[in-house]
């Protein structure tokens, strides 16, 4: 009774091993599988800057790459292309986007509306997909505020210079007035002394 059980068990191990080898061989022969790496998932930019939305994908077959932008203004398709074939850039981004073979895109002259989430999808021809997300923050350049501060500083400096000149003129006028008054007082005192001398 023991021998048949051992035989069945041995056959089961052989069948399992053969099945596993066949499955592994089938998996290795079947093209498919796509991987996507996003090295910089957060990007901070200022208005009018160019930014690179960098990704790196790999797959066995031909891939289709698609980028979308999602923000409080809605969802916009940016670009879609198939490696080695066509490139379809949205009219909104026509003059602002450059595509790269590794799946990355460059966005030129960003504005405040470009802030948000950028979703990239890599679709492999055998049905495997990979997804990535990049968050872009766009900040306004504070030149306007600095310009206002500079103008205000220049205005205050000019007002201060005018006040200093005015105080200097007032001081000179006061000295001249005091000299004239002292001269008049001296002259009138001299006249009084002369009159007293005459009277005497």
From TrEMBL:
Residue ranges of domain Immunoglobulin in the record: 40-139
Superkingdom in the source lineage: Eukaryota
Protein name: VSTM5 protein
GO biological process: filopodium assembly; positive regulation of excitatory synapse assembly
Cellular location(s): Membrane
UniProt keywords, alphabetically: Glycoprotein, Membrane, Signal, Transmembrane, Transmembrane helix
Transmembrane feature ranges: 12-29, 146-170
Matches recorded under PANTHER family: SIGNALING LYMPHOCYTIC ACTIVATION MOLECULE, V-SET AND TRANSMEMBRANE DOMAIN-CONTAINING PROTEIN 5
SUPFAM superfamilies: Immunoglobulin (SSF48726)
Cellular compartments per GO CC: axon; dendrite; plasma membrane
Principal location listed in the UniProt entry: membrane
